[in-house]
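DATA SHEET
Item: assembly model
Revision: 1
Owner: S.N.
Input lines:
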Amino acid sequence: QQQVKQSPQSLIVQKGGISIINCAYENTAFDYFPWYQQFPGKGPALLIAIRPDVSEKKEGRFTISFNKSAKQFSLHIMDSQPGDSATYFCAASIANSGNTPLVFGKGTRLSVIA
Amino acid sequence: ETGVTQTPRHLVMGMTNKKSLKCEQHLGHNAMYWYKQSAKKPLELMFVYSLEERVENNSVPSRFSPECPNSSHLFLHLHTLQPEDSALYLCASSQALPGAGGEKLFFGSGTQLSVL
């Protein structure tokens, strides 16, 4: 129940296209859903996050869509650029869960080709 | 620069060696984490320290030994490692305590470890 399932494992998108990465969870107690971006040779960095009281959050070209009933959330990268090529991790956590840290998905390696 | 510094960046060691990884955070955060990253398990939580006290040990073999002497420093002591322990070891910190909800993790760039 503490798992977050992420798909696809890898993704190739043309420059200017839309990249979509999906995550699903079972534990309805999760109430915070961040996405992390990791470039080669660097650690992951927080990209964007959402809480279940909204269905969508947008920051620039990055949008999180959240479907509470389906227990799914996704990251959309509009107008994808080669500089977006990185590994993306979804995650989830529960407030006041007694020291239970963030749970990460297994990551999606995105390649944006010109 | 995330404010979390890890040294060394690369480490090659034999199976009988003893080495230590160091992590330092300059952010005044209250929690620190060790993660192992490999192709098989991309972000595997190893240890969590909250206010300098270890609160989670994800069934990590005893050949890995963490130490948190103060809120700014975290070490991972390594001894008698196996080749399958070769991976990228990432340190992270957060202001919010684990389980508080909404914690934002700041990661270092990691130590790439190769065990021969």
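QC remark: Chain A has a mean pLDDT of 94.
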